[in-house]
Structures
1.
Amino acid sequence: MEIQAFAKLNLTLDVLGKRPDGYHDLRMVMQSITLCDTLTLTPNQGQGLRVSTDLHFLPTGEKNLAAIAARRFWEALGCPAEDLDICIRKRIPVCAGMAGGSTDAAAVLRALNQRAGSPLTPAELARVGEQVGSDVPYCVLGGTALAEGRGERLTPLPALPRCWVVVCKPEFAISTPELFARIDSVRLRCRPDTDGLLSALEEGDLGGAARRMYNVFEDVLPPRQRDRVGELKNALIQAGALGANMSGTGPTAFGLFDCPEAAEEARAVLAENCRDIFLCQTV
Ligand code: ATP
């Protein structure tokens, strides 16, 4: 089986507080995009579960999130593990705030469930995904959705109106635990208007949704990284984006465009000073 695992973007990301169990309560509007990894699942002859990728620094075998997802799926069904090779062609940048590992895990869950004749409903499959990672339930369902709690409480939303998305991943990586620690130690000056964005989606108002995008983590980035993300967002707006935002805990920035020509032009301009740049559509 060959399957696609779509990247996600955060149209909004808000942190409501820290819980007694150490996790944070989040409220975020998520969107899947056509940027994707490709996974190939092939039965093997008695070699067990094996995972390989085309990026040498990613974990292979049992440590890869794709393998963890397969194990959790077989456990949930109470059936023995299969002899299976999972080969991942990565296109989604790693540690970029686009849920690259989580979406690979979700794609494995969907594929194994489909191959078994769909014994689990999408909601049950999302619950299995919760054991693999907080973003996996959303990645199982995909589309436009509100994610709350750790990210596992999902409400499907009206789809973001048709648009083109220019995605820029700056050259540095960001430490997610460090950013969560910083967010606990500051008073947030600015919060996303999540309810306003939900109303814009109800009304099919792309401009209204794009203008309300915001991510609280942008404010707690280290200064040089915040400047770089701000510079990319400004360049996207200058190039005609209806709105621009940072995804997840960064550092990926993206802009929404209502016309493919403007998006292509923006991609070309930003490619001059950003190596990882993609022109996508929403899924
Ligand atoms: P999120 O948006 O969910 O915070 P991210 O995009 O910032 O995630 P990922 O690309 O998912 O980060 O990578 C997070 C970690 O997961 C990396 O340290 C990587 O080694 C590990 N990992 C395990 N399996 C995979 C996989 N299939 N693809 C990418 N990373 C994986």
2.
Amino acid sequence: MTTTLITGANKGIGFETARQLVAAGHTVYLGSRDSGRGSRAAAELGARLVVLDVTDDESVSTAAARIEADGGLDVLVNNAGIEGRTADGGVVNAADTTGDFMRTLFDTNVFGTVRVLHAFLPLLARSPAPVVVNVSSGLASISGAASSPAYVYPGVAYPASKSSVNMVTVLYAKAFPNIRINSVEPGYTKTDLNANTGTQTVEEGAEIVVRMAQIDSTGPTGGFFSAHGPLPW
Ligand code: NAP
């Protein structure tokens, strides 16, 4: 039996990932920073709620202690993320990007990923086939931003945070060769994160997350993938 934790799984791509992994037979811990939203989502899916705010050390360590006491963890999906849109649903553009705004996004998207990794690495190390999926973004690609005319995004903080997630993926993959650790790009998906402007369904967005959560010890590590294959850094 594979035991899987998905952060930020009370809605959006994380919820759909939880739904599909429950259907695939995983024991899923559905991470939610809000117990009410989380318990409704977990009950709907037949998952186990774990209250977990990725920006809060105590919340993360309490969640790790609980899952360790229950028997451990095989798969960690670092999905919780924020884009930080304006009140009218627009992207915060470069001119309006402040240090505080950048810090808020990094706290969830980057430091949150590291906080959760640090707490759960000892559990993953005891799994026979440990896997980590870091949910990144196509906007993370520095080569894309630098040279592709198709790369159009008026803001700074969100792509920069996801580029950092990708570096975190590569360096943890090198440091822990027994764990399969990859970044994934779900594609532009209709969720609250982007004020529901995305063009894909959550089923389409979750496809690569679910696939990379199910790789075995012969699978890739230190890579960056969309549903269509490897992506350039
Ligand atoms: P979403 O529907 O807004 O879901 C985001 C989830 O993250 C929610 O469950 C949210 O919880 C949770 N979250 C936010 N801050 C958190 C915190 N501090 N601690 C714990 N959970 C927290 O967005 P989504 O589109 O599904 O995003 C999921 C992931 O996919 C993100 O990492 C995002 O960057 C990535 N992504 C999305 C797209 C896209 O087009 N949608 C494209 C590329 C990558 P609350 O309900 O409590 O806010």
3.
Amino acid sequence: MKFTFLHSAVLLASLGSAVAQAQDFPTKTITMVVPFAAGGPTDTVARLVAQSMGIKLKQTIIVENVGGAGGTIGAARVAKAAPDGYTLLLHHIGQATAPALYRKLSYNANDSFEPIGLVTDVPMTLVARKDFPAKDFKELLAYVKANKSKVTYANAGLGSASHLCGMLFMTAIDTDLTTVPYKGTGPAMNDLLGGQVDFMCDQTTNTTSQIKSGKIKVYGVTTKARLASMPDVPTLNEAGLPGFEINVWHGVYAPRGTPKAIVDTLAGALQVALKDPMVKQRFADLGTEPVAESRARPEALRTYLKTEIERWAPIISKAGVYAE
Ligand code: MLT
């Protein structure tokens, strides 16, 4: 094909508009997809971050809940979205476990996204309905082992953090329970509060206020050390599950191909949001804190996601859990 003056003029014009688009970004509302139902821990983190990022970007960031299939439906939505910076994903450790759990994912967790940055590491708590017949972890273990599948365990679907914790718990105690899947642990919490389901493992961002108000029982946390927000709650490690630690890390992603200038603008707004006193206080109230600025960067998330995918694959394979 003869490269004419017209071709070069069109190419320059298109390059020029791409640069202008990146320089002016954002010029309209941004959508942040949360791959779980409203009212859950992922939704809570996203709404705080979206509100603060929007102030920095001088644009509204709306949160859209796209639940189902342990977060993979929402992630797929963003993987296929236009790479223009106006559709983002806020997801957690499920982004790293889905490749081992789903044999037919419609996207590649590493290659279908442009990482923006890590957001926060959230601990998990083992919680039960308030009249569950166990006063501590030892009694819970005895009850669960005695009643097995009569005991119901709520999660947010294969690939959710609540599923991952439940899978590791059942493997650790070598006992299968009846799992009840929801589109998020927001709806699951409603059933736990109502006594329709016996217990679940969920993030402090969803359980702290219910625990402190006595509406649910807590038996342990999945951190190495006890939480400052709940110093009387033992770690599961000390309560009877040695080495049982899960950190539900969260990251923000854009579709693959989003221009670097736009990725950098979004990453800059995320870093500002994570220093926002409102975000820091609300995270602290919910038993967590923003990651250090060095981790709220694209390359930090890219590296961490890759190592987490590699870390969880053999663990999940050993548990023998996957979806066709
Ligand atoms: C999970 O269980 O993985 C999610 O945190 C559920 C949710 O955010 O609703």
4.
Amino acid sequence: MFPLTRPAPLPPALAGLERTAVMGICNVTPDSFSDGGRAFTPGAAVTHATGLVAAGADLIDVGGESTRPGVAERVPEAEERRRVLPVVAELAGRGIPVSVDTMRASVAWAAVQAGAVVINDVSGGLADPDMLSVMAETGVVSVLMHWRGPSATMDQADVYDDVLAQVKAELATRVQAALAAGVKPGAIVLDPGLGFAKAGRNNWPLLTGLDHLAELGYPLLVGASRKRFLAEVSALGQGQAPPAGRDAATAAVTALVAAAGVWCVRVHEAAANAAAVHLAQVWRAYHS
Ligand code: PMM
């Protein structure tokens, strides 16, 4: 177990949390892999997000671009803004902490102006040369995920000798780039990027080796929710379980990584994951 660390510049409701935060996913897309289409209009997205908060989510991650392996096409910037910004503004206006899931610096900037308190860039600042400057200028909590290229081709980038050591080293490189761009160390959160350029077997060393990633000195975010590698464990039917049927496995992972001390889990379903986080909080309290 490593200490539960959290990034500094957060709204009081999140900064005061003594447990892993639950980040509810609100994909405003017609094509995300597990929930695409469910929250495609702004009104439906807000309803979905407030339902996640009612079920126990501490913050909501709003995204307008699918990252589905192999097939995701880039969404034009104007369309991404049209999807994301009204939802960010509405949720922030209701006092809900909002994260924006985007690889575009301009969208991240506009979302922070609309009230977002976290920038979540799955490319770790690699997809848009201006992203790290926006992270630095806004000063908000910034998630740098391990990434080896766009979703359309990332499955081919899944080549590792030692996945844990290489992901750790590549995340360290992103941290150096962020610090060089002026991002404050206290704003940085790291994410191993489960399922991104990682075949099923490559996700497990990352999940079980989180203490090694924590040695980098930054809070961690884990996004295992409903991902394909969960369905590959035999009890779930050798890859047959549909994404929403992976919620039980997701909650099990949440309990384990929350007990290990991650800052945040990014999940599609809130109730079971919030319960898992609370259980892990008790577990940590009794752990000597
Ligand atoms: N996974 C997805 C999208 N955004 N962001 C972070 N930080 N970590 C992740 O693992 C992550 C992410 C893909 O899942 P989705 O299509 O269900 O949102």
